[in-house]
């Protein structure tokens, strides 16, 4: 089982970025924990601040044997028709995740351009949203 965790813009700053919303843990430490929790899963982590690079990496799942994607597209969630189109072109399931509960926040975060293309959505559980995303894919 090969799972890709993908983070979009500004999520490289986890641990220092608005810690009251996103917590103090870094993604590198969390991914290391996830790899220990799921030794049977080949877990790849990819982060980019660039929309096109995210699309290139997602398209690569069409040929690299990836079985599922846990995607936190950051603010591109709310704006990117291109990411939505890309997800619709993939053959593996994509789980949309958010660290914060976007529905408790500003109204512009209530709209997602990718949700309809995703298998399901997990939001509001801190970094554990990613683990729940993996669980969802393992049970898919
Ligand atoms: C986020 C929520 C988005 O609205 C925001 O732009 C992010 C992070 C989250 O994980 O809670 O960058 O996706």
Quick structural gist:
By secondary structure, this protein is α/β, with parallel strands linked by helices.
Explain what the structure shows:
The protein has a single domain, classed as Rossmann fold. The chain is 32% helix and 19% strand. A 5-stranded parallel beta sheet has the order 2-1-3-4-5, with helices on both faces. The chain has 5 helices and 5 strands. The model has no long low-confidence stretch (mean pLDDT 97). The chain has 140 residues and is of the alpha/beta class. It binds 1,3,4-trihydroxy-5-OXO-cyclohexanecarboxylic acid. The site of 1,3,4-trihydroxy-5-OXO-cyclohexanecarboxylic acid has 10 residues, from loops. 1,3,4-trihydroxy-5-OXO-cyclohexanecarboxylic acid is lined by residues 10, 72, 74-75, 77, 98-100, 102, 109.
Features:
140 residues; alpha/beta; Rossmann fold; five-stranded parallel sheet; 5 helices; 5 strands; 32% helix; 19% strand; globular; binds 1,3,4-trihydroxy-5-OXO-cyclohexanecarboxylic acid
CATH third-level topology: Rossmann fold
* Uncertain stretches of 5 or more adjacent residues: none
Bound ions, cofactors and other small molecules, one mention each: 1,3,4-trihydroxy-5-OXO-cyclohexanecarboxylic acid
Percentage of β-strand residues:
15-25%
Taken together, the total number of domains comes to 1
Question: CATH superfamily assignment?
Answer: Dehydroquinase, class II
Order of helices and strands: EHHEHEHEEH
Number of helices: 5
Strand arrangement in the largest pleated sheet = 2-1-3-4-5
Average pLDDT works out at 97
